[in-house]
Amino acid sequence: MGTITLVALAAGYCLGRAGGGGHASNSHSYSSHGSYSGQGDDGAVFLLLLLVAVATLVYLTVQNQQLKSELNQKFTAVRNLTEELARQDPLWNLQAMTSRVNEVFYKVQAAWTERNQELARDCLSDKLYHRHKKLTDQMLTDKTRNVLENIQLAEVLIYSVANYQDDARDTFAAQLTGSMIDYTVKEVRGYVTVGDRVNPEEFTEVWFFVRQKNRWVLAEIAPLATAELIGYGRSYSES
User: Fold this and answer.
1) CATH of domain 91-237
2) Cα(85)–Cα(162) distance, rounded to whole angstroms?
């Protein structure tokens, strides 16, 4: 009902603006025909752009609501399955898994901004460790630094788990939401090449974890939590 009301109010506002624009163009019609025609065209373009903006807003609102609903359903499935699995394997304790995601998240950010992947070595899969190390080593060579500050992790939502008889195949996925200040500087003069020193950026990402030596480590990061990506998530147990 809230969305329907929003659409109705927005449509009324658009029509009001269009009517006002029409009256304004009439007041200028005495100067020249060209002036009148231009005002009319501008009003039509403005109305079209406003309608597109409203339609886009409504579409995104509906999509976000659907994604939130789907995530909640998936989280319920995760909670039920992990409760069952944790009775035999404590590594599937959901609270401990969420705490591990928090720990890994902050260590990964520290390792990145300090350009020292050893700070997060126990949190990364071998493949991701070497990939991050290659990138941060290049920063050292280039004398650049990607500074991450005011890091706030607002929510961790584990929405997919997969348990196999072979523990080495166990995985889970979590959506991470938060904000941080993110910018890159040249070390020599300290000027910013990319990003903003002042205004934090919001993010919603998906982090994929795998089981390695009886602990959870980060295997991959998807920088955008899309509906399609979330939709692939399933909770499954082979045992």
Assistant:
1) 3.10.450.240
2) 11
